[in-house]
Amino acid sequence: MEIEELLKTFQARIRALDAHYFGAASPEEAFYVSQNVQHALIVDVRTQAEWNFVGGVPSSIKIEWQMYPSGQLNQDFLQQLQAEVPQDSWVMFLCRSGARSHAAANLAAQNGYTRAVNILEGFEGDKDNNGHRGNLGGWKFRGLPWYQG
Q: Is the pTM of this model over 0.85?
């Protein structure tokens, strides 16, 4: 996999999504970039409860987008991101299914992160016909490294 071609793919996807950040990556692509590009980081924006009970990605930076159990937006998110992640980094955002990470990537891009990427499908993916996650897509489903919470 060539990094330059991969980055073009990220950007092509984002044009189709009409988002305002650098790009969108599949879980496999995000993992590849995290392993092969200097200063590429994964920021998991799920809640503390999700990290504790569902699991997470080794070496990811954890910053809640919304607080559990209230669901209130984390008013300190940007400040916490800036304290943990240099603006010149590749910062790839991960949530449960791709919605919170989309919002986090937009906020990051609006505040100087020119290489903000949303990880599509998230950690668990969308719900299947039985209302269960983890069967249709996502980081875990794709067999990428993760730990049980």
A: yes
Side-chain half-sphere exposure of 147, counting CA atoms within 13 A? 8
Which CATH number covers residue 105? 3.40.250.10
DSSP-derived letter for residue 60 is -
Number of domains in the chain: 1
Residue 70: strand, helix, or coil:
coil
Residue 62 CA to residue 55 CA, distance in Å, equals: 12
pLDDT digits (tens, 9 = 90+) for 12-49: 898 877 789 999 999 999 999 999 999 999 999 999 99
Inter-residue contact 96 to 48 (CB < 8 Å): no
Cβ atoms of residues 78 and 107 within 8 Å: yes
